[in-house]
């Protein structure tokens, strides 16, 4: 719940600075997706020792960036 709240807050701050547009949804969704990937990988691969915290952060950041890139291409 707090991950979604953080994503929404970041999207709202972007909207207040740049105007409300289609990017606001993408920013919120990408942030939430990165949070989900971080939680899933942290609870599975990091727990078992396959990835450390830096690896989990890298993969979750790349997944959020890839999602946002795909979203921008879709627009």
In brief:
This protein is mainly α.
SSE topology sketch:
Elements: H1 2-18, H2 22-46, H3 53-74
Please give a structural write-up.
With 75 residues, the chain is an all-alpha fold. The radius of gyration is 14 Å and the shape is elongated. The model has no long low-confidence stretch (mean pLDDT 92). Helix content is 85%, strand content 0%.
Task: List key phrases describing it.
mainly alpha
Counting DSSP H or I runs of 4 or more residues, the number of helices is 3
Helical residue percent band: over 70%
> The biggest beta sheet, please?
none
Order of helices and strands: HHH
């Amino acid at each position: 719940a707090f991950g979604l709240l953080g994503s929404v807050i970041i999207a709202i701050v972007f909207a207040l600075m740049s105007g409300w547009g289609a990017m606001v949804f993408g920013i919120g969704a990408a942030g939430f997706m990165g949070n989900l990937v971080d939680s899933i990988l942290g609870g599975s691969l990091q727990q078992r020792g396959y990835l450390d915290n830096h690896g989990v952060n890298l993969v979750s950041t790349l997944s959020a960036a890839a999602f946002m890139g795909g979203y921008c291409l879709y627009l």
